[in-house]
Specification:
The protein has 10 helices and 8 strands. Strand 2, helix 3 (49-58) and strand 3 (64-67) form a beta-alpha-beta unit. 38% of the residues are buried. The longest helix is centred in the last third of the chain and has 19 residues, at 161-179. The protein has an 8-stranded parallel β-sheet. With 224 residues, it is of the alpha/beta class. The protein has helices at 3-13, 30-38, 49-58, 76-79, 92-105, 128-136, 138-141, 161-179, 200-205, 215-218, and strands at residues 20-24, 43-46, 64-67, 85-89, 109-114, 146-152, 187-193, 210-213.
Length: 224
């Protein structure tokens, strides 16, 4: 099937039609991205800063670029002028750097806080306790060029649907709890980014507002 046909069939399965589809275009060519663009996609996710900045230069300027990989502080400056949303923010140090680069570019940068929900040690993210500590830190509210718009999490890489569902539900419950809490003024809990090619329907059942889908749209990755 073509990229366009893949997108149509994915969209037809969506439980929540308002859930945003972020097309994960890492390792994919500008031509392949343009196929998805021509099929109506405007949100694309990349996990490497250099690849993201190169594609930003090449491709239409109404694309909203999502940084979905682990972001190092020394790379924030390259994304700050244009990035639409940074998905994987996992430390106060990174938030401070995003704020600094946002100020230099005179733009407020939207971020999601990554929460560690998987049983794998390799995944990044805050624990629930660390998240509560972050929201109690007065320094967070002073970051004028950062807007935290929600949470992001990645489930354990497993065939066990019950486990994935449990992990997603735990994050959704935390998301709902935070929404009804008193939070700093630069925090607006409206996005829950969970779900990828293999589990996006489970994620939508669990309240996802944003899914990151790559392989199901573009096919297998082209790692050279």
């Amino acid at each position: 099937m073509s990229i366009k046909e893949n997108l149509i069939s994915i969209k037809n399965t969506f439980i929540n039609p308002n859930c945003l589809l972020v097309a994960v275009s890492k390792t994919k060519s500008a031509e392949e991205i343009m196929e998805a663009y021509d099929a109506g996609i405007r949100d694309f996710g990349e996990n490497k800063v250099q690849e993201l900045t190169e594609k930003f230069e090449l491709l239409p300027k109404d694309i909203q670029w999502h940084m979905i990989g682990h972001l190092q502080r020394n790379k924030v400056k390259y994304l700050a002028p244009f990035v639409h949303l940074i998905h994987g923010v996992d430390s106060m140090k990174l938030l401070k750097e995003i704020n600094k680069q946002g100020e230099k570019n005179q733009r407020i940068i939207h971020c999601l806080l990554q929460v560690h929900i998987a049983q794998e040690e390799t995944k990044f993210g805050f624990s629930e306790a660390e998240l509560e500590e972050l929201f109690q830190d007065e320094a967070l509210g002073s970051l004028k060029y950062v807007k935290i718009v929600g949470l992001m999490g990645m489930a354990t890489f497993t065939e066990n649907e019950a486990q994935i569902k449990d992990e997603f539900k735990g994050l959704h419950d935390l998301f709902e709890k935070l929404k009804s809490s008193s939070l700093p003024k630069n925090v607006d809990m409206k996005e829950l980014s969970i779900g990828m090619s293999g589990d996006y329907l489970l994620a939508q059942e669990m309240g996802s507002t944003m899914v990151r889908i790559g392989t199901a749209i573009f096919g297998e990755r082209n790692y050279n």
